[in-house]
Amino acid sequence: MFTGLVAQDVAMSQYFSAPLHLNPALAGISFGPRVTANYRNQWSGLGDGFNGGFTTYVAGVDLHILPMRGGIGALFEADQISNNLYGSYKATVMYSQQIKINRKMAIKIGLSGSYIHTRIKWNELLWSDMINPYTGFYNNVNIPNPTNEPIPAKTRSDQGDMGAGFVFFTEKLYAGFAVNNLLQRKESINGLDNTAISPRFTVHFGSVLPLRHKKEMRYNIWLSPNVLFLNQGKAFQVQATLLSGISFVYFGLGARYAIYNPDAVIGYLGVKKGKFRVGYSYDYTISKLMNKTGGSHELSFTFNFTGDDNSLNPKKMKGYVPCPDILNF
What we know:
Strand content: over 45%
CATH topology: Porin
CATH superfamily: monomeric porin ompg
Oligomer: single chain
Helix content: under 10%
């Protein structure tokens, strides 16, 4: 009998390209309006097609509002398993208040509220007692064989949740902290147990180091080291990433490590030109699941209507000082 699931919230390899998913305090930091979209197919070897395995779709929009001295954002997330047999859908609105320390540094404090819908297509699941030794799970006319597995009383839920975070940033450095699932909502698949969802704690920091950055030069070069820590319940992981950019092309390598378990090596490649940016990353699994999952593919897209502007000192204000480009991605 089906008894339960153990899981954690999705983590994006290109977390710097999913700012609203990472931390509500990042809403409006790029001034904007900024539109972002992300797609992640984790362990694609477990299913067929674009929606096989564990797939996540994320779309967001955010902007900074000068009279409020703060940013607003909206985010939609769809997290699906095995061609949408199980799905979790989340709509979030967020606000971030900016506290300007001086012309070169600031703090943003953010809050978010979410509506979450989860459901499982119980009638499409396949059970061991459905197996016919001659025809498999289906009969001769491709109809699923019957099962004695009882249908649970509850196969969907609608709940709310909250999150919070802050980020400190200067022209070249940033450090942030966020916590999600503050209300510790309860989920149940079998209708018997209501297990609380553990809070997800996020710590992220990094910098942008311009190696050659002058207007008269044809090709600018930069490096950006970044580190991400995630903790949710008993799950803990750290991801270190080093990105580099030459002119409009950027690339890099990363590594993700869970306690007692080296997880994956990550490769990055992308293009950033004017208001557009497109990125791709691939997670090569190095854990015991190597050669069994198909790795993970991730795509990201960003369109920023104000290009390289930022919330600390927008170009329309005197004394323009940019925030780290990685937060403006």
